[in-house]
Amino acid sequence: MLRILSLGNSRAISSGIFYLLIFLINSCVQEINLKMALKVLRALDVAKTQYYHFKAIIIAGMGLFTDSYDLFCIPLVMSMIGRIYYPKVDRTVDPKKWFEVPTVIASTMFCVTLMGAVIGQLVFGRLGDRVGRRRVYGVSLVMMIVASIGCGLTLSKLPLMVFVSLGFFRFLLGIGIGGDYPLSATIMAEFANKRTRGAFIAGVFSMQGFGILMSSLVFMIVCSIFEASANKHNLEKPSELAPSVNIAPVPPESDMAWRLILMFGAIPASMTYYWRMKMPETARFTALVEKNTLQAARDIGKVMNLPLSTIQEDVEMINTPNTRAAFSNTYPFFSREFLRRHGRDLIAASINWFLIDIVFYSLNLFQYHVFSGHLIPKIQMNIYKDALQIARFQALIAICATIPGYILTVYMIDHIGRVKIQAIGFFFMAVSLFTIAKVNMNGDHPNLFIILYGFTFFFSNFGPNTTTFIVPAELFPARFRATCHGISGAVGKVGAIIGSIGYVWASRDPPNGLGVSTTLMVMGGVCGLGFFVTYFFTRETMGRSLEENENVDELTGVWFVRFWPHKFSARRNEVKGFGLLEMN
What we know:
It is globular, with a radius of gyration of 28 Å. It has a single domain, classed as Growth Hormone, Chain: A (Up-down Bundle), CATH 1.20.1250.20. The chain starts with a helix and ends with a helix. Helix 14 (336-371) packs parallel to helix 20 and helix 16 packs antiparallel against helix 18 (464-470). The relative contact order is 0.13. The longest helix is centred in the N-terminal third of the chain and has 45 residues, at 2-46. The chain has helices at 2-46, 51-72, 74-85, 103-130, 133-151, 159-191, 197-229, 254-263, 266-278, 283-289, 293-304, 315-318, 321-328, 336-371, 383-416, 418-442, 446-461, 464-470, 472-475, 481-506, 516-537, 546-550, 565-583. By secondary structure, it is an all-alpha fold. The chain crosses the membrane at residues 12-29, 57-81, 101-124, 136-155, 161-179, 200-222, 256-275, 346-370, 390-411, 423-441, 447-471, 483-506, 518-537. One of its GO terms (biological process) is phosphate ion transport. It catalyses: phosphate(in) + H(+)(in) = phosphate(out) + H(+)(out). Belongs to the major facilitator superfamily. Phosphate:H(+) symporter (TC 2.A.1.9) family.
């Protein structure tokens, strides 16, 4: 009996020792993985600016280039479609209203892409966090390529079929565009070092300005070529038509011109597809989400000339609560803990993006009113010259205001911070819009109109239009980063839909609408609200690693007040000082 008990105890002790060894081995493996992952993150944060950083800007930025080309060429295309499918000359109405696409159809064509973008940002943002940024990055690009080609391949020339087909492919295009936003921002944020991260993400987004310029240039080139080859009889001006003629002549080949312009958007996207597929998964996703730190280190070595053997930093220097928190946090997205830690940041980022897109997309529709004092009436021009003059003014604004705003943001954002640039942008946009409204009330000042309009566009890009793209990519944990960016962007595109539809209807003369001046004052008030939300609720992310930004201390968790970074440090030092005094 004693031998049986002794044998049982020996087996129990052996089993206990075995499970203890397994536990110790697992703990050691986890500690090794943690140390290696800390080295990987440290290597990313302190890496010098290298060739691959600029290559990543081009690869990711070309998606934004295509996005803006497709989004901002549609107003130009709609002006040409109006001449082609609505050529009736009605001498009982104001000639300014001739050849216009009905407001409902025009609004639908503007908004259907934005509706697709809302879906794309939500779906691809979530997929980017679940299956990886790289695995879905090419899917969004393929959707943009297919949809851009499809926009020009309407088989019928009946107006109804043209708009149904165009609307479908514009919606599909919007899904691809929406998917590109959270993926491009997240990928660039996770590849960049913390010293110049803001400039790199802003560099990606600045490609939007060049896409706007390209849409105007392509439009001018295509229209010039088609005009040179057209039959002169079909280029007759509407003002020269005989009284008995009720249909303005249109060159039959003009129906091909707008299709080629839309299909051109597939070219820059196609050029970067191969390089997107060659990109490795971001090291932060691999290390923090997939927990494969060895593969993350290998990927860094491939693209940044940092062999695994050279990542030899002292672990104790980087083994901090901030970095350990990135591995230990396991709370789900739909949880009270996420809301406590990141709820304010997500709401603030979403509201800021919502407010700027209301104004930004309204400004795009407002440009015809701005340029009207310099535009030759459409009845005195053929279809190509009418489209050309609008494209020239859009190119002028892009060169003089839009692109300089982006460039200044790239240069300044890591020196003065995201919050200050965003607040400055909102403030001066509000001032500009109130001034434009006042000028519009007092009479026609076309030159001043253009200057103030350009001023507004400059501060939208040296301001919230750029920073709202950057901040959501820096604030949230790696496993929620693309999702939160997608949510913020989707809320922003809802604002764009409201702004696009709202401006079309509100800017009409009373009693049918508020009038242009009142609408502009409302837009100025929206910018004032954006300044308020930015100053009091938006957290600065400059100069800190992504893991430090996601860590929450006793002050960053406050919902109703935003503290500047130096105030965080001052409060911490103050608390530590009191602690030392009490100990003494």
